[in-house]
Amino acid sequence: MTEEPGRGCASCALVVVQLVVVAVTFVRAYLEEYFTLDADSAPGPVGPYVVTLGVVAGVAAVAGIIAGVRGSGAVAYGQALVVVVTLIAMAVTNAMGDSAHEEHRRRECYDSPAAPGCADVR
User: What are the φ/ψ torsions at residue 101 (nearest 5 degrees)?
Assistant: First the structure.
């Protein structure tokens, strides 16, 4: 099958938009976790960012499946790339959030060892 003229440009634009959404979401999560003017503030939850990345991965997977069924291999491979990059970003964002929350918890327990939940922090 031959692809229609202009489809390659549209598929590239779709991949670029999806990767920009992934990059912006990842940077926003990173900034929320590690950059704050208040040293005592708890890091924010990363759940909304992981969900956003999951939606992007889901849209890319569906677009890739549809492209594969229609015989457009280049679009399907591009969408597969977006899915892989997004899943890696999801894993790193989740690990980053866990690390920031654990660091905050350890800092709180260091300041007041008798605080609730600090018995198992060494």
Answer: -70, -40
115 CB-near residues (< 8 Å, 6+ apart)? 108, 109
Asked whether the beta carbons of 106 and 99 are under 8 A apart, the reply is no
Instruction: Note down pLDDT in tens along the chain; length 122 residues.
Output: 455 555 667 788 889 999 999 999 999 988 888 777 776 677 778 889 999 999 999 999 999 999 889 888 888 899 999 999 999 999 999 998 888 888 878 888 887 777 777 776 65
- Give the contacts of 6 (CB within 8 A, at least 6 positions apart): none
Note if the pTM is more than 0.70: yes
What letters, b where the CB count within 10 A reaches 16 and e where it falls short, cover 90-112?
beebbebbeebbeeeeeebbeee
8 A C-beta contact, residue 53 and residue 90: yes
The token duo for 74 is 């280049």
